[in-house]
Task: inverse folding
């Protein structure tokens, strides 16, 4: 039996939960089902107490009408899940260097940088993994500039990503030689080296908000892994259209192993490479 997360004087009714769930969905595109009720209630109570709102109704009024929207951002930081580790689903990084980048380079007609967008960035393990993989496994890194932009809706996690401090668990799948080459040992973990920290640009973005993503354009590859599983069909469709606009023609989207665009969009061409299945914005054929 789960403990009641709410003190006796703070009650979150089923109606309150529905109101909040609809509000949060409109703001972020993230939808919580009934199985997440304990998780959601616990974090709502934390913020009701922290803001001295006293009741859900008062706190919900603050969320809806605060001019700065700072409380919405704070709550979003608490509600988003950010568990990841270095070299997670490594087969897609292999696909990047063995299949995607050779194809991208073969059709490039200029010397502009190859651009990779990682969203969500979480605490930085994925964009830094890509940077390490390119340095270690892609010969083209000696001939091409690569820009890596990593974005997340959670401003707290972006601070951690820029800092680049990781637990032993986060780096457990990295070869020892990579730890020695790209990290500094700290008392309670590892910090990624300054050169790699400076090689990734971290930005805050909500992929469900068109105004947020309008400036994200001309990417060759987008890694969006384990995000769409939190979206319903409408939000998933919005996200896939956002990625389509952000990609150059011929660019690729890499999703998590349990995710698919097949139901949400017909904009993309499914490409099956030896290492992974990815989604491609079709080349202009005129």
Result:
């Amino acid at each position: 039996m789960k403990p009641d997360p709410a003190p006796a004087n703070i009650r979150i009714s089923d109606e309150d939960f529905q109101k909040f769930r609809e509000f949060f969905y409109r703001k972020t595109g993230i939808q919580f089902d009934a199985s997440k009720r304990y998780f959601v209630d616990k974090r709502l109570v934390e913020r009701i107490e922290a803001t001295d709102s006293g009741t859900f109704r008062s706190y919900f009024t603050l969320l809806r009408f605060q001019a700065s929207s700072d409380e919405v951002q704070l709550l979003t930081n608490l509600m988003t899940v950010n568990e990841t580790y270095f070299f997670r689903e490594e087969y897609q990084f292999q696909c990047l260097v063995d299949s995607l980048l050779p194809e991208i380079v073969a059709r490039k007609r200029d010397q502009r940088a190859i651009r990779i967008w990682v969203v969500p960035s979480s605490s930085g393990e994925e964009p830094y993994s890509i940077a390490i993989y390119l340095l270690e496994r892609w010969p083209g890194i000696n001939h091409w500039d690569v820009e890596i932009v990593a974005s997340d809706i959670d401003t707290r996690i972006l601070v951690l990503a820029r800092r680049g401090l990781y637990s032993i668990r986060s780096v457990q799948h990295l070869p020892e030689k990579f730890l020695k080459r790209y990290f500094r040992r700290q008392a309670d973990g590892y910090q990624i080296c300054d050169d790699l920290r400076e090689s990734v640009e971290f930005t805050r973005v909500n992929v469900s908000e068109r105004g947020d993503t309008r400036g994200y354009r001309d990417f060759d590859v987008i890694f969006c892994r384990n995000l769409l599983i939190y979206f319903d069909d409408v939000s998933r469709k919005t996200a896939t259209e956002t990625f389509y606009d952000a990609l150059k023609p011929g660019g690729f989207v890499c999703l998590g192993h349990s995710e698919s665009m097949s139901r949400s969009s017909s904009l993309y061409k499914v490409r099956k490479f030896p290492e992974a299945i990815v989604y491609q914005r079709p080349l202009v054929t005129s």
Observations:
- The longest strand covers residues 247-255.
